[in-house]
Write a structure and sequence with these properties.
With about 375 residues, the chain is α/β, with parallel strands linked by helices. About 40% of the residues lie in helices and about 20% in strands. The protein is built from twelve helices and twelve strands.
């Protein structure tokens, strides 16, 4: 879940959540029920979601206003989101200031204080958890600034104090679809290891939701959750995967919820082609590897085109600045991608979103 993971720079201890065992799987009616339910869950997120734009409104009333986009760090995904936001703000007649932090709370705090001092009308916190800079969020809210929380929570979560709106994920639905994919593929006899950072609220919620659905579908299937050492996985995860394989030779699946950890997982799996990897974020390299079949990745959750998310950020800000309640909680579009729907290029995954800019500008008129 890349929008939320770029902020963390600390070290987490990699620890197990129960020792794995060989999966006995299910049989008879229980097996039939598991496969049928899993197929429904898998199918629920394979199709491209529709491009949803709220009802038309008078965005022109926001002309001349100032929006700040405060990113946790300068990474390609957030840069593309910010590029889309800049284009959208320009189309709406608003000015935009884009700031990239260094991944620390201090840099996000400094950017917030600068935005408040310069009289921002709106602030979008992208991959910056408002709770980590709560005092500044409260200060901005009291000053009448519209603060939005982008990419840090599930849409089922309550708003943080001082936050006017959030743009989040449907975490339970995404994780249920991933669990369903594994159960369909394994015929409900999977042995799965999940790597997920516990220090991030969004990935912690994802791990909890995935484990719950996995256990409900197949109580007899082996499952282990390990804490991903997010600050150091580039140097530690490959060896950890190798150790985990020796400890659990019956392992069938790895769910690496952080898409950027896939190269290290892949390296650790060298010579073990039977292990299949599922991941999140729809990073270009992972999608290309899935398409070409030259990695262990078999399924991924992809974000909508990042520039389109930037337009969604500005649309939400504009609506909230005019008091529209329908825009308080919105969902970042995602879809599951596997060999059945990967297409020839990454553009084939999101054909409807090629007209996102036109759809938003039409709604603003």
């Amino acid at each position: 879940m890349a929008l939320a993971v770029v902020l963390i720079g600390g070290t987490l201890a990699a620890c197990g959540a129960g020792e794995p065992k060989a999966s006995a799987g299910l049989s008879g009616n229980a097996l039939e029920a598991c496969v049928a339910k899993a197929a429904e869950l898998k199918k629920s997120k394979l199709a491209e979601p529709p491009l949803k734009v709220l009802a038309p409104f008078e965005m022109s009333k926001n002309k001349g206003k100032s929006i700040w986009i405060i990113n946790a760090a300068r990474v390609p995904l957030l840069q593309r989101v910010s590029d889309g936001a800049q284009a959208a703000a320009s189309a709406a007649g608003m000015s935009v200031k884009i700031v990239y932090g260094d991944g620390s709370t201090n840099s996000a705090q400094a950017a917030m204080q600068q935005a408040i001092a310069q009289g921002a009308d709106g602030i979008a916190l992208v991959a910056v958890d408002p709770g980590t800079i709560q005092a500044s969020v409260d200060q901005a809210s009291k000053a009448g600034i519209v603060v939005t929380d982008v990419g840090n929570r599930s849409v089922q979560d309550s708003l943080r104090p001082g936050v006017a709106g959030q743009l989040g994920y449907d975490v339970p639905a995404e994780m249920a679809a991933m669990a369903g994919w594994i159960m369909v593929d394994s015929k409900c006899s999977a042995n799965t290891l999940m790597y997920s950072p516990s220090a991030l609220s969004i990935t912690s919620a994802g791990a909890k939701a995935f484990q719950a659905e996995y256990r409900e579908l197949c109580p007899d299937c082996a499952f282990e959750l390990k804490d991903l050492d997010y600050g150091n996985f580039a140097s530690t995860l490959t060896a950890e995967v190798q150790t985990d394989l020796r400890r659990n030779p019956d392992l069938d699946y790895i769910f690496a919820i952080i898409g950027s950890s896939v190269p290290e997982v892949d390296a650790g799996l060298r010579g073990n082609d039977h292990v299949r990897v599922l991941t999140h974020d729809g990073l270009d390299d992972n999608l290309d590897g899935l398409r070409k079949g030259n990695t262990h990745v078999v399924a991924d959750f992809a974000f909508a085109p990042n520039e389109a998310i930037g337009w969604q950020v500005i649309d939400q800000q504009g609506r909230l600045m005019l008091g529209e309640k329908d825009a308080v909680t919105l969902t970042i579009p995602t879809r599951m991608v596997d060999a059945s729907d990967i297409g020839a290029t990454n553009g084939d995954i999101w054909p409807s979103f090629t007209r996102a800019q036109q759809a938003y500008t039409a709604a603003w008129k």
